[in-house]
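#struct-pred
JK: can someone run the complex with nicotinamide-adenine-dinucleotide? inputs below
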Amino acid sequence: MIIKPKFRDFICVTAHPEGCKENVLEQINYAEKCKSPNRFKKVLIIGASTGYGLSSRIVSAFGYKASTIGIVFEKQASRNRTATAGWYNTAAFEEKALEKGYYSRTINGDAFSKEIKQKTINLIKKDLGKVDLVIYSIASPRRKDPATGKTYYSFLKPVGKAYKNKTVNFHTFEVSNIEIQPATDDEINQTVNVMGGQDWKLWIDELVEADVLSKGATTIAYSYMGPEITYPIYRQGTIGKAKEDLEEASLQLDNKLKPINGKAFVSVNKALVTQSSSAIPVVPLYVSVLDKVMKQKGIDESCIEQIDRLFSKINKDDFELDEANRIRLDDMEMREDVQEEVRDIWNKITTENIKELTNIESFRKDFFKLFGFEHKNINYEKDTHAEVNITNIIE
Ligand code: NAD
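RT: done, structure tokens with the ligand placed:
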């Protein structure tokens, strides 16, 4: 099949297996240079196929030689459809892990379900005995509550009042003003149900109950804060309410893990181009300004660099937390000099000057790269096998 990008808004419905493999290899090459000692030898990553979760799995395995179990929710190719990018990423990860002789298994299915939690527990008991690190990196538009069978949806809306700001169509580079009406109470509750701490708590409850967490085990979930420009749509919006719930869950889990000397944290990460962040109004424009400012200052970090920094922190006996017990990997994004320049540029952006003032062209490239496109050394005119198998997958 000749595989070209086919997109609708912020969704690319095709993915290129060779390009996705390139992306994974680039991250593996970076991770293999990580040198600090590692106390985590058996790692469970929930949401391991793209973005921060994939980088967490790569750093664990290729940086620190840990055994990994990854939970993903991806689709194999069928008839004239390609597989999802996360499928190809996982295939590349598993292939390389096998080559290096690292233990790794992937469970493909809905992480929110009881069935996948049980499968994971069975696998840990059979192969690893216990795990010592659990990374929770799910970003999803919906969640079926395993207790009630009801499906909840995640909304990206402000809370309380309408939000007006600039946004960009990152395919046409057209800047426009958008106004987003506030969420209803039901929409807020649904978003908290999907993206808040409920499912993370269920995972840890079940792992504790099954006695598959080692003494001193750590669990980490990812959050985001962001600047005032995006507050109404992010931190103070529906998704921000969910993140507050996630952060509250980390305090409850920290208590729950005390009997085994364990710890729970939230890590507040930097804004980056991922499948999930591209879907949030205003955020792509903000990321394209931030990228420009941080690159100019030489302080930019990719997913793998952020996660490498996270691991070098959590491997120390003592590391800095903020007043709400959170790890802050967004420290450089939130630096006053960075945000001052971002604000300055933000106020000047128009359709006419966007390419000059921001890194919108590289945002678009990075977006397509997530799906395996935009690699110079790949011939996208060549017939390519879309069907790629994942070794060590449990469906
Ligand atoms: P992403 O879309 O790249 O990754 C989401 C992962 O969740 C994928 O591996 C996907 O397969 C998995 N997933 C979704 N639904 C699932 C399900 N039902 N069962 C199993 N797996 C499922 O997103 P990301 O940006 O890496 O986000 C991961 C976390 O990091 C989120 O909590 C997000 O809020 C947080 N975060 C992201 C940014 C950013 O700028 N991208 C910044 C800070 C924090």
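RT: quick notes.
The pocket of nicotinamide-adenine-dinucleotide is lined by residues 47-53, 71-74, 86, 110-112, 137-140, 222-224, 269, 271-272, 274-277 (CB under 6 Å).
The chain has twelve helices and 14 strands.
JK: thanks, will look after standup
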